[in-house]
Amino acid sequence: AVQKIHEWKASFGSTAITVLMAFFTADPDFETQAARKAFADDQLEDSRFVYENPENDNNPGAFLSEYFLRIFATHLNAIAGHEKVDTLDCGMMGLETALALTAAAVSRVFSSDLFLTLFAGRARAYLGV
């Protein structure tokens, strides 16, 4: 059981890397390391990466950014058909825990200079583009 939980938590990190690689690769504005770093720094400020439209003070769309939803959807696919677990050891509800892990994974990838540095050549090879 512990191994399965570890695999479930680890999948957030690997999914975040894959989703963000695809996100950066799909947009020519992010071809340079400087552009990716500037975007990552902007998204980390006030956890903007969580919001669909962080500029909208009235309705920013919490937990609705495109890449955030793609990462969270991986969790939903992974648990489809499995036994429902209402709480984990930390006492948080299962889906709330998954949202927190998604946010942590995105934050960690955006904070990783290694990811941003190695991204250019490896992402295209990794994604086959």
Key descriptive features of the protein:
single chain; 129 residues; mainly alpha
Structure report:
With 129 residues, this protein is an all-alpha fold. Helices cover 64% and strands 0% of the residues. The longest helix is centred in the N-terminal third of the chain and has 24 residues. The radius of gyration is 16 Å and the shape is globular. The protein starts with a helix and ends with a helix. The model has no long low-confidence stretch (mean pLDDT 80).
Low-confidence stretches: none
Query: Based on DSSP secondary structure assignment, what is the total number of beta strands?
Result: 0
Distance between the termini: 38 Å
Give the integer mean of the pLDDT values. 80
The fraction of residues in strands falls at under 5%
Fraction in helix = 55-70%
What about the largest sheet?
none
Secondary structure tally, helices: 5
User: Which structural category do the helix and sheet elements fall into?
Assistant: mainly alpha
SSE series: HHHHH
Globally, the shape reads globular
What would you report as the Rg, rounded to the nearest angstrom? 16 Å
